[in-house]
Fold this sequence. Notes:
Elements: H1 8-11, H2 16-25, H3 27-47, H4 55-85
Amino acid sequence: MLGEKHHLSIEFPEFREQIHLLKTTDPEFEKLHQEYDELNDEIRRTELEIEAHSDEFLENLKKRRVQLKDTLYGMLKKAAEESVES
Length: 86
C-alpha cells in the first residue's frame, strides 16, 4: 500500500524489547535503524507525492530498505536468542 509506514516496531512487534534495547546499547544498530527510518520517510513522501523522484530512484530506495531490514532483523534475532540463553 502506498504511503504505508514500515517502522521496525510495526514490522517486527515480537522484537519491540530488543529494538529498544539495541537502539540504546548498540551504536551500529542505532545507525542502521536511523538510516532505515530515514529511508522509510523518504519513500513515504515520494509515494504520497510530497517529493518527486524517478521510479528507478524509488526502487533503489526500496531495495536498500529491504537490505537494511534484513540486517536489522538478523541483529534482533541474535539479540533475542542471546537473551534467552542468559
